[in-house]
Every structure is written in C-alpha cells, then in structure tokens.
C-alpha cells in the first residue's frame, strides 16, 4: 500500500506517514493499532511498537517530542506571508554542539550543517513564529478542523 493510501485511510498527511517510516516522528500507540487493522497484521505492528518504545530503546531527548508537538503553532491560511511554503524543516539546537537543520522533501530528508543554510532556516523560523497563532489558538483550530473532518466521515 502506498504512503498516500495509508495517509488517506488514517486521515493524516503523507509526510506524517513518511516520518513514521523514517522514525523522525513518533508513532502514537493508537496509530500502531490502526496500522495493525489496516494491514491485517494480527498484532505484529503493535508488538513492534511495544518493542521499539521500551524505555531502553529510546534516546533520552525523544521523550520531549510529544511535548514539543503539543506546543506547536499553526500559521493561518490567510496569513500575508507564509515562509514555510517551501516545505517542512527543523532547526536543532544543542547546549554543547553546533546547531543543525533538516528539511523534508519528496525523497526523504536532508540534514544541513552549513552555517548560512542554518541561519536562513532560523530566520524563516522567526518569521513563521511571527505569523503563527498562539499555541492555545492553534490547539483550538486543530480541534475545530478535526471535528469538521469527523462530521464529514
């Protein structure tokens, strides 16, 4: 089954499915169960999820991903400027290492360590923050959209 088909069945965007496959985004437990049903894998997906998510198998920083996603903000569709239109990217800062960035594209993800590229991504991030809704307004908008999609189903 193609990523686009999986995404449609699970009501997520294709890049989310791609991120789950690459391991760059955490697959929630309930989504592992949904994949089990979708693929008819008789619990194999959920068992693999359980094995991959034991405390010893995750790097210490990974536990922060869920909190970061809960604090994410949304740039409204009617914003005058949407600098993230070229695709998703992440900027990573570390207390004891140089900053790095990554950008998602159709064939995967590219890691960047060139300071000019990183500074450009950091500037874009600042502009995105200026255009974005607050975390609370983002959550409210996300809930509203989810409710509308649930009603259409």
Number of helices: 7
Measured by DSSP, the beta-strand proportion falls in: 5-15%
Secondary-structure element pattern, one letter each: HHHHHEEEHH
The number of domains is 2
User: What is the average per-residue confidence, as pLDDT, rounded to a whole number?
Assistant: 79
Pick out the low-confidence regions. Answer: none
Query: Which structural category do the helix and sheet elements fall into?
Result: mainly alpha
Lateral strand order in the biggest sheet = 1-2-3
| Shape summary | globular
Summarize the biggest pleated sheet. 3 strands, antiparallel
Question: What's this, in brief?
Answer:
The protein is 51% helix and 10% strand. The protein has 153 residues and is mainly alpha-helical. The protein has 2 domains: 3-59, no CATH class; 75-152, no CATH class.
